[in-house]
Amino acid sequence: MTQSVREMTCVNDCILQMERITKRFPGVVALSEVSLACRKGEVHALVGENGAGKSTLVKILSGAYLPDDGQIVFKGREVELDSPRRAQQLGIAIIMQEFNLLPYLTVQENVFLGREPRGWLGFIDTREAAQRSRELLHAMSVDIDVFELVDRLSVAQRQFVEIAKALSLGADLLIMDEPSATLTGHELEYLFRVINGLKERGVTIIYISHRLDEIFGIADRVTVLKDGKYMGTRDVRDVTKSQLIRMMVGREMGEAFPARGTPAGEIVLKVRGLTRKGVLHSVSFEVRAKEIVGLAGLVGSGRTELARAIFGADPIDSGQVELQGKAVEIKRPHDAVEAGIVLVPEDRKLEGLVDILSVRENIGLPNLGLLQRWGFVRSRQEAAHVQEKIQQLDIRTYGPDQLALNLSGGNQQKVVLGKWLVSAPKLIILDEPTRGIDVGAKAEIYRLMRQLAETGAAVLMISSELPEILGMADRILVMHEGRLVAEFEGARATEEEILTAATGSAV
Amino acid sequence: MSQSFEEDRPQAAGLLLAARLSGFTRLEYVSQYAVWFLLVVVILVGAVASPHFLTPNNIFNVMRQAAALAFVSLGQTFAIMADCVDISVGSMISLTQCLAAGTMNGQAAGILPALGLIAGAVAANGLANGLAVAKRKGNPFIVTLGSMAVVQGVVLLYTGGSPLGSVPDGVRQLAEGYVGPAPFPVVLVVVLFLLAHVALRRTRYGRYVLAVGGNEEIARLSGIRTARIKVATYLLSSAAAALTGIFLAARMNIGDPLVGVGFDLDSIAAVVIGGTDIAGGRGSIVGTMGGVLLYAVLNNLMNVLNVSPFYQIVAKGAVMVIAISVYQLRYSR
Amino acid sequence: MPGTRLTGRGSIRMFQSLHSQSEAISQGGNSAMKRILFGVASLILIGLAVMALPAFTQAGAPTVDISADYRWSTDEPIQWQDTTKYKKAGPYKFGFSNCSTTNAYAVYFWETAKWEATKHPNKIAEFLTTDAGDSAAKQLSDVEDLIAKGIHALIIRPCTLDAAVPAIEKAMDKGIPVIISNRSTKTSKYVTQNTTPWFDRGRNQAEWVVKQLGGKGNIVSFEGPAGSGPAVEGFQGAMSVLKNNPNIKILARKATNWSRAEAKATMEDWLQAFPKKIDGILQQSGIMGAGVVEAIEEAKINPCSMPQSGDDYNGYMKWILKNKCNMITTNPTWASGASVVAALMILDGQPVPKQWNIPTKIYDATNIAEITDLSKSDEWMPNILPKDWKIGGK
After folding, report:
1. Which of A325, A399, A427, B86 makes a 20 to 30 Å CA pair with B201?
2. CB distance B253–C227 less than 8 Å?
């Protein structure tokens, strides 16, 4: 597959041509003779399973990595992107999946980090920076105080700051890696509006996403990578979703969701009147054994807070939690784990995985109580458990001692799941379980979730992907501004109903 | 159409207003209030306990005594904010004090050679530390522990183990002189702290120190030359230690190879008590001033109250633990 | 005639003037009257002369009763200090700046100071103390603090020869008399100094070692903290002997900081570095000496084959008693008490010697039993504290 992409796709108005890019890491070839060509002013989607090489490709574009082979032609000239600064200077900006924002600096300080406008005597011109940041955010119709610490912003807000930062670079090529992963509903609309606005200004956008529906909504063309190789580029009007999926995984993907399970058993979790000032207002609901309950709502509606409150990670002001009919007092996660409640958090890097430890160590971590005798870890038992989990979950790794941070997102998520499964919990809370995970891995996670429910556990699933909720949940609860506002039966609900409830419009 | 996505945070409104009013200070750092609060408490206790405590003579004494710690803590503040803690400052103080006294030997002609040697020592130590941490990815704690030992060895070799040298009268004014009614060292400390505060908030170097300490990878990806920032910070830290060394040479009129012992930990304590996060990325110069003052006033108070020296050590430790626990509560949210 | 005590010369003059007056009287007039007058005048004069006599014969000696312990040594000629300018009415505020209390000597030194202060409750209103924790820099601050508190006299045990010198001189300039205690200072701006004569001790120790070795052999030297008076002056004293004995070679020297553990570790190293080469040990203190003999014993060598000096730290003294070799020169722990008394005298205007050395004595295996106490721990040292005095009390 080494034809010159240039000839094929954009005769004269190619702003970017990457040809025969190869990148090797110890033990793996991340990219093998990959090509990519983008027309000026288009939205060019980049898709592929995790591990296909998308992140690597864009990191090369952003100057973070140097390719081992191949050439890059940008704006008509061959360039060597040997540092992030160089890429920025040339007009390439990238917004990563994990935000490149410094939490303890303010918005305007982050936007202009490294390129602060200078004023009198070489000091930083704060007023100028603040003014320009405000303008950038305003142009996106986003209202954030530019003197606020980034640490205090919500995930969605940080996303917009990142975009403003990229825009402030005056970038001609903007790379967005999973930008919509944390956005829902009209936040997503905003994003698309912003992107379209950028297009009108002549900015080219490379858009990486797993949400194929979105791609059909926003992109002009789409390039598919698989296992580090270039699979092809298509115009979005000329291709269907299943065709794309076939290119990505090499197989026809049928309906991604496993069949619904047997009817629910007795009540496992009963929550009554859970309240936390400003965050949760008297939330009450139940989850039964073998049941998957989906928790839907907009970003900021309190779903994650609810999960954390049940798990003991955050305090509550009032309310009761009953597990299998008995009231439990959960003041910290330790109590929750002891009681048999498990939380797989939203941000696995921050809260789920210790990325400098190995797979084995991560899976073993909360289970050392089981795996120890006289305080020493029984390594053979640990290894057996871990191996079982690796197989059960089909975690793609070189071995149990591989460092967790070297795994792809999907496999990392499996490790996180795996670690909690060792202890056969009664209630499993999953917060955005398939965020940033490729199609193939998603299906496996769905399968696993259903398996878990079948073993008798109660599963509470928080998700911002409506298809996912509609596909997986037996019952759907909708939250809005800290309150439970609606309940639907999973098989019969519609996206519209859920969205309507989530936005607070009366039912 | 714009829509605010801010979640329901009542206190944010007040802070936002305050932050909007001044881009200059960060009122969010409530943590630095802790140190000032403690300081006021200690001063009140002192005022009640002894009539000598609030006399101008005593106050100036305290400030002079605090000056030595103040200079080195200034450098240490930047170091810790950049996640480049510097434990070698103690031995650098000893070295520079001995170089100053030993080279000058009471003669004004010796001033320039002394400064030259000191500059050389600062450059050598700062570069060595900086390059080891930045280029070789060494752990700052370990690297500066090593340079601390090396520098201490150099001092002992240079002095033969015993105190030596002396300082000409003109230089002694650095410690004993006055600017109007105020002791010179106090004026110098205030000026330097002001400059440092401005540098931190308003210059790119200061901004980048916070960036590198906050998240080095993000800083790097933003095009910041992280290696240079780290090297510059270690040079700054060694220079601050040298200033303390010269000041102590002027004050004690001798070069004592062990004079710097304790300053390494005390400077870190003062910085942390002042509200700078030990993990780096956020901090306050003004807070460090508070930490230094707290230390000095506490020492003075305990002398005034005739507290046994052993209790003094316990008391200082207790203050540190209290102050730091307050911050940890804040920083672990 | 002022209402103060008569000095020698003053009374002579008075005598002379009265004598000439009486002569004048006797040359004129009424002989019976003259004779009575003459007799009465003579009686008065004789009485005055008798009173003035002690002052006259011991020119400059004070009249305060000084206990035998505190008596200064008279080995050297005494240089009297006139302290009339310091005289003021009590009660007084004393400041005592100690270096540290981290070894046996320092503990007894400190306690003796506190005890002596309690013996003069009417004269000493406040006895302020500071501890510099072995830091010369802190000692400087401590002294400044004491001066700021308005002390009438400063007693200081300087950590090193240079410690706090600027503050000492400042005190003297301000009219606050300074008394140096136990350890010496490099400045000469003080009123009196109650130190153990370090130079003499070093000399005695070296003389004994040289004699044991017959003037020939290799020695190692253990010293106190670098730059401190005992270490520097002690070694100078030793050198004054060694320079006349070229066949004695110093293999190695180390400052082991009055630490038993450091001295022991150093000796272990030296036994490895100089196998069978060490003939004698120049040792400044007993606490370090105790560590050294342990190292030698553990190396399965008879310590008596390496003659060692030392001082009156009980651990070492007990060892000497048991093993019947080695010697010590004492380090009197009551120098501090002498300093307190000296301060009182100075503030009373009484003259004091500039060099108020507390005499040191030599003991060896033959007479060590006189001063050692087997019932006491290693950390004990000979002192003058009363039996019921609690260490660490106020």
Report:
1. B86
2. no
